[in-house]
Structure formats: structure tokens, C-alpha cells
Amino acid sequence: MPSEDAAPRLDVDQILADPGVRIVVCCGAGGVGKTTTAAALALRAAEQHGRRTVVLTIDPARRLAQSLGLTELDNTPRRVKGIDVEASGGELHAMMLDMKRTFDDVVLQHTDPAKAAEIFANPFYQAMSSTFAGTQEYMAMEKLGQLHARGEWDLIVVDTPPSRSALDFLDAPARLSRFLDGRMLRLLLAPARTGGRSMFSFVTASFGMFSKVVQKVLGAQLLTDLSGFVAALDSMFGGFRQRAEQTYRILQARETAFLLVAAPESDAVREAAYFAGRLHEERMPLAGLVLNRVHRPVVRLDAAESLAAADRLVELGGHAATVDVLRAHAALARQAVREQQVAARFTEAFPTVPAVSVTAQPADVHDVDGLRTIGAAISRP
Ligand SMILES: Nc1ncnc2c1ncn2[C@@H]1O[C@H](COP(=O)(O)OP(=O)(O)OP(=O)(O)O)[C@@H](O)[C@H]1O
Ligand SMILES: [Mg+2]
Which residues of 260-288 are buried (b: 16+ CB within 10 A; e: fewer)? Predict the structure, then answer.
């Protein structure tokens, strides 16, 4: 049974046009089309629904970034030119997340410039702001909070980082704020008072993720740097936590719509189902599932019929090219059925979550025309 027939149809235009919806978050497993979907929806919101829209992209492919006029990471939204907004009066602004600059900005907001300069120079800060697992997710949330606070846009469309697991986006901020919360750091400080050696082994164990940096700063400098880092962050804990909590509340609000993006593959659909469960637990509003890159045969001929026709044609000494086409069609028809079965697993688990399918395009989506096509496909499947 085709999953979209069973699930209610997701009406993306209704979401994009709704003035009550101020944030759309596109999430899902790695490589399923989150960035593409986010950019396509933002473009559609501006062109078709006249909304003043900003899209926060994360690591967009170079060509896509270029087509949105994003040639450098400058961490602030730029207006996208050359789109068709004359009739609608909408606007599209786009930006790429610069994780480190966002972290730097947060530090600057919570401390004076001299202290900030000290923090920036600290190797532990440098490691954490550029490599800590979860920093990208946390900074995406931080940036969303900032854009929302500016109140300049009708609609903010958020892409999420290319995590292995879709859940990382929800978990990372908590993990990071736990870290910043000081429990772990207080533990680190305790052995520091007792002497260098235990401190060293403890640090090496706890900061496994920073191992390279730890090696680089080995020696007397280590303690000084780490204590400096801890002391500096200590003064900012409250601010960090408060901001994370604020953004979390925004994500739970009615103005937010989560869209789960999945490819019609077992892993991606399983990920999507986990994520849907988590959103429900966190009381975050799931608007629907976008099943991206599905294959649809253009003619109504199932795999068996197609293969039978090919065999018959061979018997009759028919045209070889036609036989090939029939066989290729049979393979496509079989894949379409497989994809529907995979997608049906999600719908069985979440029968009330609206869904929509987007056909796999013949080529990658890397320009405004391509985004427009995807936007139209999501809206009129
Ligand atoms: N419907 C589609 N048809 C054809 N190609 C697509 C479609 N959707 C996305 N793509 C292509 O698939 C690739 C991955 O898409 P995208 O970058 O949007 O995925 P992502 O979920 O953001 O990945 P990551 O998790 O790495 O951030 C891109 O090259 C994009 O152009
Ligand atoms: Mg992406």
C-alpha cells in the first residue's frame, strides 16, 4: 500500500502561508536532502507566499551556496537576488552557519572584550569552538535564537547539521550545556588543586576528543590554559544555559513546525521514526514527513508485466532497445514498490503524521531553478 495514500497528505503551502508559523526546522538523517528542502521551502515561502524569509543553511554544497549568493562564511543573512518576488512582495535572505564565529559572538556577549580576547587565545577554547562534538548543533540553535530575537523575518527556515543521527540536533545542546554547566569542569578543577600529575591524566581521559590539542599543549602551559578556560567559562555558565533553554522553548512553541526529511531507505526511515517519537516526548510540533528522492515509474506497468513483455518481445525477435527499456522499467517499478514498503513502516508507526513524497530529480539540485522545482514538487506531488 503506498504510504502517502495511507498517511494524510502534508500540505506544505498551508504551512508556508500561515502567518502563525514563524520557524520551520528541517531535520533528518545525513544526506537525505535537509539542506535542499530547507532552501527550496524558503524560496517558495518568499516567491509564492510573499513572506520575508531567511534560511539558515549548514554546510551547503558549494554550488548551491553560490547560487544563493553565499560566497563566503560571513555568518549573517544576505538578501538573495535574482528570484521572482515582484508579484508576491516576499524576500529571501540566506546565510551559512559559521560555527566558530557564532561561538565567539556568544562569548563576546557574555564577557568584556579583554576577557574575551583571553578566551579566544586559549587552546582549549579553540579546540572546543571548532571540534567539540555537538558544537555545530548547539551553534545552529544559538543562531536560530539570535535570528528569532531580531524579529526581522516572517519566517525562519532552519537546516540542521549533517549529523549521523537526526537525534543529535536535539541532544547536542543538552550535552554541551551539561558540559558547560560546570559539573564536569568542577571535577576537572578539583584535581588541579592537588597537583599536576593527576590533573594531567584526568584531563587526558576527559578530553579524549581534544587529544591532539592536549598533546600540543602538554606541559606547564596545560594547567594554566585549562584553569583559565574553566574560570572564564565559569562566569558564562548561567548565560549559556539560559539561552539554550530559551531556544528550546521556541522549538516547543506553536509558531514552530518541524519537518522530518527522509529518503525512502530503511535507515533513514528508522531514524525519522525515532525522531518523530522524540519530538512527541519533547512536545515539539511535528508538522509532517517529506519523503525525498522517491522513484516513480512514469507509465502504469508493474515489474512483472514489464518483464513478461520484454520476454515476449525477445521471443518475437523484437527490437533490442525496446527490450532494454522494458527491463529498465521493471527495475524502476520494483524499486518504487520497495520504497513504498519502507515508507509504510513510518506511516504504520505514526498514522496521523502527514506525509508527502518528492521525486528524485535526474540531477543534483544546485541552483534556484532546481530549488523551485523541488518546492513545487513538495507542494504538488
Ligand atoms: N529530490 C532530489 N532529487 C535529486 N537530488 C536531490 C534531491 N534532494 C536532494 N538532492 C541532492 O542530494 C544531495 C544531498 O542533499 P542535501 O545536501 O540537501 O542533503 P542533507 O540532508 O542536507 O545532507 P547532510 O546531512 O550532509 O547535510 C545533494 O547533492 C542534493 O542536490
Ligand atoms: Mg545539509
Answer: bbbbbbeebbbbbbebbebbeeeebbbbb
